Amino acid sequence: MNLRYRYYQFTFEAQDQLLLPHYKGSTFRGAFGNAFRRIVCTLRRKDCRTCILKTGCIYAYVFETAPHPDAAIMGTARYTSIPHPFVIEPPPETNRVYQPGDEISFGLILIGKAVDYLPYFVYTFEEMGKTGIGKRRGRYSLRTVKSDDGGLVYSYEDRTIRPQTALEATIPEEYAFNNSARVSAKISFLTPARISYERDLVVNPDFQVIVRSLLRRLNLLYYFHGERREATWNHRAIITAAGKIDMAENHILWWDWERYSTRQGVRMKMGGFVGEATYEGDMEPFLPLLQAGEIFHLGKGTSFGLGKYKIVDVRQSGASEAESEERAG
Question: What CATH code is assigned to 171-328?
Answer without folding.
Answer: 3.30.70.1900
